[in-house]
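Usage

Read records sequentially. Each one opens with the input sequence:
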Amino acid sequence: MVTGTFKGEASLSYEWVGSAPPGVSISFSPSRGRVAFPTSMTVSVPSGAPAGSYRLRIRAQNT
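and closes with the structure output:
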């Protein structure tokens, strides 16, 4: 659920904090909506991706 102190529409984005795992993709469905709105995040990891700890920052911005 995307919630916040602002009203109106927000769009979601992400960025890796530090190194990104090779071949991993992230998507949101839906990627924008009227706050508060439910969303799902899908993380696709290819076979053979290296194991490890990776940090991801997710942002919701007013649109």
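Summary fields computed downstream for this record:
- The chain has no helices and five strands.
- Residues 1-12+24-46 form one domain.
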